[in-house]
Amino acid sequence: MKSVLLFLAVVSFSFLGSAQSWTKLNSVPARLTFPVVDVIDGNIHVVGGGGVNGATDLHLRYTPSTDKWDTLKPVPYLAQQPGGGTINGKLHYFGGGYPNSGTRLDKHYVYDPSKDDWTKLPNVPIPRVIHKTAVLGDSIYVLSGQPDKKRVDVYNAVNNSWNQYNDLPDNNFWYAGITTHNNTIYRFGGGGSIAATDAAHKYDASKDAWSSLNTLPKTIHAPDAETLGDSIFITGGYTSGRYLSGVWIYDIAKNTYSQGPFLNTERSYHNMVRVGDCLYVIGGNNNSNPDSTAVSLLRYCRGEDFAKVDDHKLIETKINMSQSPTQIHIAATNTYNDVLEIEIKNILGITVYTGTSRLSDTQLEKTKVLPTSGTYICYVRQRNHVSRMKIVHY
């Protein structure tokens, strides 16, 4: 077969972007809406919020090492759309709306896992609901919500007290994706279901000040966000009448976005947390499949795809791949002028190269298609068959 060096046109392939990079795990035992979800000692706690018949006091715990759920001491009060977060290994739970009436609440409790018990703490300064939260050090920031969409209240666990901080930069932080990294809060999207926003901001705690980031590639209502390494994953959401399964990966240092591994199903109003090098998506809403989405549990681990691919292995299938120190070799038999669709992803699942070829023997120069040294996966599709190989670039 003739060997040629190709410079391929950049294209996009949905068959790779929607690959099953997220693993479906043991479902949540009960259908909950807007619970408080956080991690304590490597376990995921899913607490309260709305149940099938209104607000619930249910307190569930998921253990990733066993893929099992158990039940802990219930929340001391009932509330729809409460807020909370973990400080120093204890889970705070506050606010929300009284079940089926919409009356806002100011109650505040903390859960101690060593005692499996709840303790009452100072009330939130004003009754509020649909609020978002973020934890920095010994403090939990309560952002937006009703009745005041710009208000920020901060609880300090050392002083056991609340204080009001500077207002948010806009009125659309409710239903935004909120996460933290290096003593900084990050916000992506939000707003109402018919007025989704592409806004993105970061908060400097030392200055009590917000600043703008590059906007999201599209407007998104009700996504969630979580940090993994030096990147932030922004998953799902809702826009223009559609539920989304897409994932954007925000590079913190570069202030840029790239496409990440799609969720298995579209959803909004879900929760996402990190345990070690893995992200977990819990529940969410999708009107076309409400029951299964609401109780679903998905996991994406950094590098998980790479563990499933052997190093330097010639794949004995319709498509064969191998590598030399400087090139990636792709060979296909019986092509009948088939198009080979090629995509290369880095360890975070970010696409760094796409291309097509009609030739049966393709050689790609590593320095031209791989941006930096590191480990990658090359996917090649011919008709309905996909092969992949791990690539190490020095």
Q: How would you portray this structure in words?
A:
43% of the residues are buried. This protein has 2 domains: 4-15 and 310-393, Immunoglobulin-like (Sandwich); 21-306, 6 Propeller (Neuraminidase), CATH 2.120.10.80. It has a 4-stranded mixed beta sheet. Strands 2-31-30-29 form a 4-stranded antiparallel beta sheet, with no helix packed on it. Strands 3-4-7-8 form a 4-stranded antiparallel beta sheet, with no helix packed on it. 4% of the residues lie in helices and 44% in strands. It is elongated, with a radius of gyration of 23 Å. Residues 1-20 and 312-316 have low confidence and may be disordered. It has 4 helices and 38 strands. The chain is mainly beta and 394 residues long.
- Report low-confidence residues grouped into runs of 5 or more: 1-20, 312-316
State the separation between the terminal residues, measured CA to CA: 28 Å
Sheet with the most strands: spatial strand order: 1-36-33-32
Total beta-strand segments: 38
CATH topology of the largest domain: Neuraminidase
Structural class: mainly beta
Mean pLDDT: 88
CATH-level-2 architecture of the largest domain: 6 Propeller
> How many structural domains in the coordinates?
2
CATH superfamily of the largest domain: Kelch-type beta propeller
Biggest sheet: strands, sense, closure?
4 strands, mixed
Keywords:
single chain; 394 residues; mainly beta; Immunoglobulin-like; Neuraminidase; 4-stranded mixed sheet; 4-stranded antiparallel sheet; 4 helices; 38 strands; 4% helix; elongated; disordered N terminus
